[in-house]
């Protein structure tokens, strides 16, 4: 048997140890390959070139993250196999041969993980392309093609990655003495201790980071984002390395709690496991926070943008004609013709632009008459308030949309028109989105409006309300093909068409973000799985000895469940809290309620983690019980 065969057979013999590592590596290759298939897809590149650029950028992020993830995971596996390595050295294997064996093992695993990931990507290629069509909302189908470029890029990129990692992991074994290898994990550990000062610093840093993130609003969120992130990351590191161990030691010092039922067994080595896994838990918490925040932000942005478009105006189609537009009547008739069998309510309103005397603002005001405004409000629906004014009374109309309003004007003010010298008395103010151009309007009496002759410009606003507006995408597309949105002396707005365009464009960004978040999240869960199973043999020996003292199966299940839940959910809970604070800060920045989106994202991930935990718990307890 050659040395290469020996290394290969060693991987096969340790297939249970390497199974999770192999599958996670395969998953990383699979995701990278899927991204490459999309990025090089000719149809997708033709539809939206920015999507391809975004996918290539995402590939780079996944590649860097895959390197760190695989490297840390492999380090944990090598540490758990120290005793095995010690036996090999004791039977005559040199340090050079040991490092060569580890190098070859990693190359074998990397080669097969890369090959298997690409094969899975080819098998499920059409499914992933169909999924992309739905997520991106593309109107053209993404046909399956032979992804030669994606295949070559993925194969060579990950082959290089695993070779580099193989060289890196060889250095982990350098300097280990035979006695240390033989003892392996059985070597006695020092009692975990925590610094009171660093524990307090952890609590203070997290409290300050949370307080600042939750208190700032608007553009201040951007200013404090970097320092708050640094503070929270440092606080999280000390939380797991110091504060968690300090808390457990304090609980162990409480005799009434420590000596109660099976708590002695529960807390006896919890501090040791927390200390040993502190860096791993820190890694999982930060990675999960990134996943939560990224996906939550993208979902929130999409909801905010689409809500803003829909809340911009109640009308499905709007046509604003400036003074001197000779084709106004022709364009309006074209809109009515395209609407065809759609039931709609129509209203038109004349707008006169006037300057205001002694007005510090450079913007003019827009005057409309009472009767036409009431017709527009009626066309918009029953929720819109009508006005009733007389003489020189005026109602101030301030624009309002789903993302908030500008500062309110006080009632009772007077407005003097510059040209006519007419003094208008403001009767009331109405916040409404009947006019979608973000300007403020003043409603005046019909007779007064007709008498205004010295106006700077005159516009005519045509609005069409359709109940089932989402079904008018094709109508909007046809109109946009005939008329430009911003033409000479007119402006056309098609709500469904614009909403669909935003969904398609933003769907690409959301698609990239969801996949990156999924990779991070799966990696975080897999990393917890690795850490738990790295200590499995020690746990088997420990509970086998305790079982001889009379520990029942019920008590064993209870102890393991609580211990696993603490080790599994503490970093996830920390990540959920971090993510909730980050999304709340985002909400404060845009003055838009993201409670629904935040709950959806954090709740979905939490539910997945609970299911994942139940699966791991069942498997873990079964393996522990089988050794007793």
Structural account:
This protein is an alpha+beta fold. The protein is built from 23 helices and eleven strands. Strands 1, 2, 3, 4, 5, 6, 7, 8, 9, 10 and 11 form an eleven-stranded mixed beta sheet that branches. Helix 1 crosses helix 6 (95-123) and helix 2 (15-39) runs antiparallel to helix 8. The chain is elongated.
List the helices and strands and how they pair.
Elements: H1 3-13, H2 15-39, H3 42-47, H4 49-80, H5 82-90, H6 95-123, H7 125-136, H8 148-173, H9 178-183, H10 196-215, H11 220-253, H12 255-258, H13 263-268, H14 270-276, H15 278-311, E1 317-322, H16 328-339, E2 345-354, E3 365-369, H17 370-380, E4 393-401, E5 404-405, E6 414-416, E7 423-432, E8 441-444, H18 446-451, E9 457-465, H19 473-482, E10 486-487, E11 490-494, H20 495-534, H21 536-547, H22 553-590, H23 595-626
Parallel strand pairs: 3-8, 4-7
Antiparallel strand pairs: 1-9, 1-11, 2-3, 2-9, 4-5, 4-8, 6-7, 10-11
What percent strand?
5-15%
Shape: elongated
Termini separation: 37 Å
Structural class: alpha+beta
As a percent range, the share of helical residues equals: 55-70%
Low-confidence stretches: none
The whole-number mean of residue pLDDT values reads: 77
Gyration radius over CA: 33 Å
Number of strands: 11
Helix count equals: 23
The profile of the biggest β sheet is:
11 strands, mixed
């Amino acid at each position: 048997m050659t040395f290469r065969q020996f290394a290969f057979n060693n991987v096969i013999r340790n297939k249970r140890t390497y199974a999770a590592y192999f599958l996670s590596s395969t998953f990383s290759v699979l995701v990278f390959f899927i991204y490459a298939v999309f990025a090089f897809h000719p149809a997708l590149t033709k539809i939206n070139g920015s999507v391809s650029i975004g996918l290539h950028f995402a590939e780079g992020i996944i590649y860097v993250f895959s390197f760190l993830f695989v490297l840390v995971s492999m380090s944990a596996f090598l540490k758990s196999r120290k005793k095995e390595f010690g036996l090999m050295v004791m039977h005559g294997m040199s340090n050079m041969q040991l490092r060569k064996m580890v190098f070859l093992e990693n190359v074998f695993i990397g080669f097969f993980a890369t090959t298997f990931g690409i094969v899975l990507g080819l098998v499920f290629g059409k499914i992933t392309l169909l999924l992309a069509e739905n997520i991106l909302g593309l109107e053209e189908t993404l046909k399956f093609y032979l992804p030669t470029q994606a295949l070559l890029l993925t194969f060579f990129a990950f082959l290089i990655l695993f070779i580099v990692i193989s060289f890196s992991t060889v250095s982990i074994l350098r300097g280990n003495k035979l006695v240390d290898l033989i003892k392996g994990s059985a070597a006695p550990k020092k009692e975990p201790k925590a610094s009171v000062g660093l524990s307090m610093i952890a609590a203070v840093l997290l409290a300050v980071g949370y307080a600042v993130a939750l208190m700032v609003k608007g553009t201040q969120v951007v200013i404090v984002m970097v320092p708050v992130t640094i503070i929270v990351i440092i606080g999280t590191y000390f939380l797991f390395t110091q504060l968690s161990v300090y808390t457990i030691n304090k609980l162990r010092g409480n005799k009434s709690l420590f000596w109660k039922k099976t708590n002695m067994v529960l807390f006896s080595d919890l501090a040791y496991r927390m200390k040993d896994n502190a860096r791993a838990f820190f890694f999982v918490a930060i990675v999960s926070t990134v996943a939560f925040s990224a996906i939550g932000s993208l979902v929130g942005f999409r909801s905010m943008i689409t809500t803003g478009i829909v809340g911009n105006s109640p009308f499905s189609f709007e046509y604003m004609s400036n003074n001197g537009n000779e084709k106004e009547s022709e364009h309006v008739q074209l809109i009515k013709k395209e609407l065809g069998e759609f039931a709609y309510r129509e209203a038109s309103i004349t707008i006169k632009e006037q300057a205001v005397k002694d007005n510090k603002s450079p913007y003019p005001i827009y005057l409309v008459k009472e009767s036409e405004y009431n017709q527009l409000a009626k066309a918009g629906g029953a929720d819109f308030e009508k006005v009733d004014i007389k003489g020189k009374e005026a109602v101030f109309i301030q624009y309002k949309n789903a993302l908030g309003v500008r500062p309110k004007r006080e009632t009772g003010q007077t407005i003097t028109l510059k040209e006519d010298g007419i003094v208008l008395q403001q009767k009331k103010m109405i916040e409404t989105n009947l006019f979608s151009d973000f300007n403020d309007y003043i409603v005046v009496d019909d007779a007064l409006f007709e008498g205004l002759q010295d106006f700077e410009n005159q516009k005519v606003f045509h609005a069409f309300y359709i109940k089932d507006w989402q079904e008018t995408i094709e109508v909007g597309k046809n109109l946009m093909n005939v008329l430009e949105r911003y033409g000479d002396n007119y402006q056309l707005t098609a709500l469904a068409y614009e909403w669909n365009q935003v969904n398609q464009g933003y769907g690409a960004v959301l698609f990239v973000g969801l996949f990156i978040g999924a990779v991070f999240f799966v990696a975080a869960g897999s990393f917890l799985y690795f850490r738990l199973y790295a200590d499995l043999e020690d746990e088997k020996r420990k509970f086998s000895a305790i079982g001889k003292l009379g520990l029942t199966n019920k008590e064993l299940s209870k102890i393991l469940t609580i211990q696993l839940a603490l080790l599994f959910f503490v970093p996830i809970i920390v990540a959920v809290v971090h993510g909730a604070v980050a999304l709340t800060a985002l909400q404060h920045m845009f003055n838009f309620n993201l409670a629904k989106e935040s709950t959806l994202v954090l709740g979905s991930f939490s539910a997945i983690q609970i299911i994942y935990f139940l699966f791991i718990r069942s498997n873990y307890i079964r393996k522990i019980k089988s050794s007793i």
